[in-house]
Amino acid sequence: MFGYRVPAPDEAMLISGGRRGLGGAPFRVVTGHGKFVVPFFRKTRFLSLAMCESEVTETCVTKQGIALHVRAVIAFKVGNDAESIINAGQRFLSDQDQMSVLTGRIFAGHLRAIIGSMTVEEIVTERQKLAAEVLDTSKMEMAKIGLIVDSLQIQSIDDGDTGYIDAMSAPHKAAIQRQAQIAQAQATQAAVEAEQEAARRQAEFARQTAVVKAEYSAEVDRAEAQAAQAGPLAQAHAQQEVLDAQTELAQRQALLRQKQLVSEVVKPAEAEAERVRILAAAEAQRMKIQAEAAASYDRVALDRMLIDQLPQIVKEAAGGLAGANVNVLNGADGLGEIAAGLVSQGLTILDSVRQNLGGQDSEGNRDEQQPRDNGLLQLSARREKKSDDGPVDVD
Q1: 129: which residues sit within 8 A by CB, 6+ positions away?
Q2: Could you give the CA distance from residue 252 to residue 260 in angstroms, rounded to a whole number?
Q3: 19 secondary structure, DSSP code
Q4: Which residues share a beta bridge with 144?
Q5: Could you tell me which of 60, 79, 115, 329 has the fewest CB atoms within 10 Å of its CB?
Q6: Number of helices followed by number of strands (H, E) in the chain
Q7: How many CB atoms lie within 10 A of CB 303?
Q8: More confident site: 38 or 64
Q9: φ, ψ for residue 205, nearest 5 deg
């Protein structure tokens, strides 16, 4: 639109003419928005707010008197506030390239001043400290001209042909070289150990492989041998099984034959022997019973015969006394004794005959024989006395 002007984002629009700007400035500052500018009565100019760069290459003398060639780079720009824009506009609006030249000169002076108060060792080892001190000393001066410094970088420090920096770095170089050699030796040793370990592992792997191959070969040979022996072994096992079966069959047949012999021979023989034994026992029992019966019958018959003959025996005994001269003493008692003796003698004769014929008698009969014998002996004695001395008087 006619008369409406808008500055770029990195520019400040300076409007001159009409009323004055802030703080009595000969122009007004517009940033970030547009503004109507009356033609012919107002004039507009633009000041760059973009980043600028200035390079400084300066020979500086240190505190030790050693000349150093220092190269630095400064990044700066116009401040965003109205005061900085006014200060920069009043100084650099017609020739904005002069900002880099002036900034380089300002920093070169401060850089020489700061390096002159430091040693080479401090400058080399503490570059950041050097840059910070330079920024601090130049900040107020740069603000006066409306500029602000974003960064200061010391790019290089060189002592030329003096060799001071090289000499200063020699111990470090030696230490570094020594450390490098040590590191190299350690790396070499580690490499050798790694190679040895790899060789050992390869040898171990080869050994294990050989062992496994040998085991596989032995297993294959064993399997082949077993396969080769499988036929004969199977045949031998089959024959052994046949022999075992035949042996078991023979044992069963022998056991069966034994049972048959027991049932056919032993059992009948035992039964026959038992039958004969039973028959013999029965026969012996029968004969014993018959003998006992016969003996009993004979004893009964003999007793009966003796009993039947007893009167005759007594009679004969009495007959023997018929011609004897017997004197009976004691009266009737004497006659009783004589009669009793005759009877006793007859009974003794009866027992003797029974023992001779029967072969057996009880102890009671033997005990009863003694009185009878005594009676006969008394009778015989009397008879002998009568024959010797004459007639016996019996009271």
Answers
A1: 122
A2: 12
A3: S
A4: none
A5: 329
A6: 8, 8
A7: 15
A8: 64
A9: -65, -40
Q: Which residues pair with 44 in a beta bridge?
A: 15
The residue type found at 392 is V
Residue where the block lists tokens 């740069």: 142
Write down the pLDDT at residue 73: 92
pTM given for the model: 0.41
- The string of pLDDT tens digits covering residues 58-75 is 888 888 888 889 999 999
Using CA atoms of 228, 229, 234, 237 in order, give the dihedral in degrees to the nearest 10: 170
pLDDT at position 358 is 52
- In a 13 Å sphere around the CA of 372, the CA atoms on its Cβ side amount to 17
Secondary element (H or E) of residue 238 = helix 164-261
**DSSP-assigned beta bridge partners for residue 77:** 148
Q: How far apart are CA 351 and CA 368, in angstroms?
A: 9
Rounded to whole angstroms, the Cα distance separating 362 from 257 reads 60
161-175: per-residue pLDDT in tens? Answer: 788 887 877 887 788
Q: What is the pLDDT of residues 267-302, one digit of tens each?
A: 777 777 877 888 888 778 878 877 776 776 666 665
The two structure tokens encoding residue 225:
């041998």
| Nearby residues of 271 by Cβ (< 8 Å), 6 or more positions away | none
Alpha-carbon distance of 256 to 222, in angstroms, equals 47
**Beta-bridge mates of residue 187:** none
- Residue 222 gets which letter from DSSP? H
